[in-house]
Write a structure and sequence with these properties.
Blueprint: H1 3-13, E1 19-22, H2 27-36, H3 43-54, E2 63-68, H4 70-73, H5 83-89, E3 93-97, E4 102-104, E5 112-114, H6 120-130, E6 134-141, H7 150-169, E7 173-180, H8 188-208, E8 217-218, H9 235-249, E9 256-259, H10 266-280, E10 287-292, H11 294-304, H12 311-330
Parallel strand pairs: 1-2, 1-10, 2-3, 3-6, 6-7, 7-8, 9-10
Antiparallel strand pairs: 4-5
């Protein structure tokens, strides 16, 4: 294990108040999003959309790392330049999603466990040789009647820890993503309780697997009520609930917490991250950053709509959202930026 490389990479990803762009949608997920806009669900359409993203002028000013999918990391611009070269030239560190998806957890109806440990060491070695310097693995935890079960939390925490240990062995910074999803009617308080239990279990397993905490990144959910909950909190209530939960459960050695957006609107995700940094930044042991997918990409996708003539305008929208989130990291975002 090259501990210094891991620490340097983790630091580089979030330097100058930057964050991560998650563009690691599976082909199926990408096709589903294309279908909503009548965009052809083809390899070439996916390649063209990803080229739009990686060639956005100035993207490296606010994005420190981009999480890619297996198809994406092997793709090229229309002129034959590999996407990896484009990202590195822009000062953006390439990363790679390495799990193979959340599958039904045997014996636990309504719950899932993320798979992909088989053959992972060899895949990580290949990705490192290609130029990736960090990786991502997502676990999915649902809240509902009797959910989550201890078995589901433990199974996903163990998989995350094994993945993280393998990443560090191969020189890749593991982005550890235990997502408590927003679906449901649960309250803010219920989400806080579950998130706390999940994080405590994850870090217990990371410790057991000898994962070096200052050579990893945590990518969690914000503490939020379910999208069907009748009581929706203020920005400050979300900030207080989230940060206080993490102060109890996330060790100070972790260099950065990069939130997932989890289905929030682009503007709301930025505003909530901003509120956390305004209220707590000066007294936190870790950086509060972002690792957003739809909350950065969605406006650009809607503008592009599969048409080459819309690329420039779509790139401006992508650049704008990235800059808004960089401002949120500084605690300087406001709704005026959306005008």
């Amino acid at each position: 294990m090259n501990l210094q490389l891991l620490k340097d990479t983790a630091k580089l990803l979030f330097a100058d108040h930057k964050g991560l762009l998650a563009m690691d949608e599976s082909n199926g997920t990408c096709n589903n999003r294309f279908e909503k806009f009548g965009i052809p669900q083809t390899v070439e359409a996916r390649r063209a959309y990803r080229e739009l993203i990686v060639t956005t002028p100035g993207l490296g000013e606010s994005i420190g790392g981009a999480i890619l999918y297996d198809e994406t990391i092997r793709q090229q611009k229309s002129d034959g330049t590999p996407f990896l070269e484009v990202l590195i030239e822009a000062g953006i560190t390439p990363g790679i999603k390495v799990d193979t998806g959340a599958k039904e957890l045997a014996g636990h109806p309504g719950e899932k466990v993320t798979e992909g440990l088989d053959g992972l060491r060899d895949r990580l070695q290949e990705y490192f040789q290609m130029g990736a310097r960090f990786a991502k693995w997502r676990a999915v935890i649902a809240i509902g009647r009797g959910l989550p079960s201890w078995g589901c939390i433990e199974a996903n925490a163990y998989a995350l820890a094994r993945y993280a240990a393998l990443c560090q062995e191969e020189g890749l910074v593991p982005v550890v993503e235990p997502e408590v999803v927003m679906d449901g009617e649960h309250t803010l308080e219920q989400c806080c309780e579950v998130t706390d239990e999940v994080l405590r279990t994850v870090f217990s397993e990371l410790f057991a697997q000898r994962v070096v905490l200052d050579g990893m990144v945590l990518k969690p959910n914000m503490v939020l009520p379910g999208i069907s909950c009748t009581i929706q909190p203020t920005l400050d209530e979300v900030a207080d609930a989230t940060v206080n939960c993490f102060l109890r459960s996330v060790p100070a050695a972790v260099p950065a917490i990069a939130f997932l957006s989890g289905g929030q609107s682009a503007e709301l995700a930025s505003a909530r991250l901003n509120a956390m940094n305004v209220r707590f930044k000066s007294r936190l042991p870790w950086a509060l950053a972002f690792s957003f997918a739809r909350a950065i990409q969605q406006p650009a996708l809607e503008i592009w709509n599969g048409s080459q003539v819309n690329v420039g305008t779509a790139q401006q929208a992508l650049y704008h959202r990235a800059r808004c989130n960089q401002a949120a990291r500084r605690g300087e975002y406001s709704s005026d930026m959306e005008k």
